[in-house]
Amino acid sequence: MQVADVIGSMLGSDLPIRVLGYDGSKAGPDTAETALRIVSPRALARLATAPGTLGLARAYVTGELEVEGDIYALLDGISDVTLNSIPRAEQLRLVRKLAPIALRHRVSPPDLEYRPPGRLHSKKRDSKAIAHHYDVSNTFYEWVLGPSMAYTCAVYPTPDATLEQAQSEKFELVSQKLALKPGMRLLDVGCGWGAMVMHAAAEHGVRALGVTLSRNQAEWAQKEIERRGLGHLAEVRHLDYRDTPAAQFDAVSSIGLTEHLGRAALPSYFRFLASRLRPGGRLLNHCITQSRTYKGRTDPFIDRYVFPDGQLHAVGHLISVMNDNGFEIRHEENLREHYAMTLRDWGRNLDEHWTEAVADVGEGRARVWRLYMAACRLGFERDNIQLHQVLGEVVGDRGASGFPLRGW
């Protein structure tokens, strides 16, 4: 059995990449700039136990499979597998062919895989799932995200804008849609490292409260708020959004939180946010969405390594649930191309700080982030996933609205 031929047949005909086997075998064109190198028979054993994207990811994370050249270019070249996995019949054929190797080389899931314990989307389990992803290392995130420390889709005003310019543009777009003005009260749920909170306070004179389930994020954000002299306006708390004080806010921003909520939790989530808003108050919900309406499972690599318990929803479903639970929908916008560009820049940052990142969080975890950012970039570019902002308002008495006839 030629290793490269087996992998090459799984990845499809007319490969634009090279496949190099540990047995010296080759597949694909010799002129290809990127290559997939099978370092160990254990990589094949992983494909036998999990044929498709999960097996490939496990082999890459453990170093049993290497990428020569740009990982995004390689994933782009095998996009039929990376975006859609391989057909069931082909999976079974691959398992049968690799079964003898799997028997000789017993493998178990890498330690970095995580399945949080407890009842799905209970406060305790949600806290553990968030800590798994976000409480990695603030220093690591500083290298990847850059000075803004914003871990959500940026908005690029021009194709050549920097990541920092694009993140500032995103927060200003959210501020405009929420019509933030001095003295208003903003609640930012799932606030991350507090970038939206600090933007609202510094640029619009808003009294802003951010809440996050990540203790690392909250501690970093509060120190940064004090460093910038914004303590009189801004605050970030380590708190579940469901424990937010019952103050009546003028606006709520939810940037990158609903991806962590299951479908069943959406109605109560939007009802809760509506209960925290005064009549005429606005909600801007910004999140990754499914590009089609179907109840598919989260990619197993993303679920086990990156965002445990995460679930994406189609924008139509989100709009319907918002509409049925306290909000009149006033505007919707798809920014998926912007997220592809954001991930491109995050990936570039990680590569520029690769040695430091490996020293800080370990090579396996750094590989996880490199793989997931490249794969997600491809997903946004190919319309496999999208990024939507949906703007809603809590309507006042007799249908009163604070919206102008045109504009936000």
Distance between the termini: 63 Å
Query: Number of folding domains?
Result: 2
Mean pLDDT: 90
CATH domain class name of the largest domain: Alpha Beta
Spatial extent as radius of gyration: 23 Å
Q: What would you call the shape?
A: elongated
Helix content: 40-55%
Q: State the helix count.
A: 17
CATH fold call of the largest domain: Rossmann fold
The CATH architecture of the largest domain comes to 3-Layer(aba) Sandwich
Low-confidence stretches: none
> What is the name of the CATH superfamily of the largest domain?
Vaccinia Virus protein VP39
Strand content: 15-25%
Number of strands: 12
Structural class: alpha/beta
User: Secondary-structure element order, as H and E?
Assistant: HEEEHHEHHHHHHEHEHEEHEHEHEHHHE
Largest sheet: 8 strands, mixed
Organism: Pseudonocardia charpentierae
GO molecular function, one term: methyltransferase activity
Enzyme class: transferase
Keywords: Lipid metabolism, Methyltransferase, S-adenosyl-L-methionine, Transferase
Commentary on this structure:
The protein has 408 residues and is of the alpha/beta class. It folds into two domains: 3-104, no CATH class; 123-399, Rossmann fold (3-Layer(aba) Sandwich). It is 46% helix and 17% strand. The protein has helices at 3-11, 41-49, 53-61, 71-77, 79-84, 88-104, 123-134, 138-145, 163-178, 195-204, 215-227, 266-275, 300-306, 315-324, 336-352, 354-361, 363-381; strands at 18-20, 26-27, 35-38, 65-68, 185-189, 207-212, 234-238, 249-255, 277-290, 313-314, 328-334, 385-393. Helix 4 (71-77) crosses helix 17 (363-381). The longest helix is centred in the last third of the chain and has 19 residues, at 363-381. The N and C termini lie far apart (63 Å). The model has no long low-confidence stretch (mean pLDDT 90). InterPro entries: CFA/CMAS (IPR050723), CMAS (IPR003333), SAM-dependent_MTases_sf (IPR029063). Its EC number is 2.1.1.-.
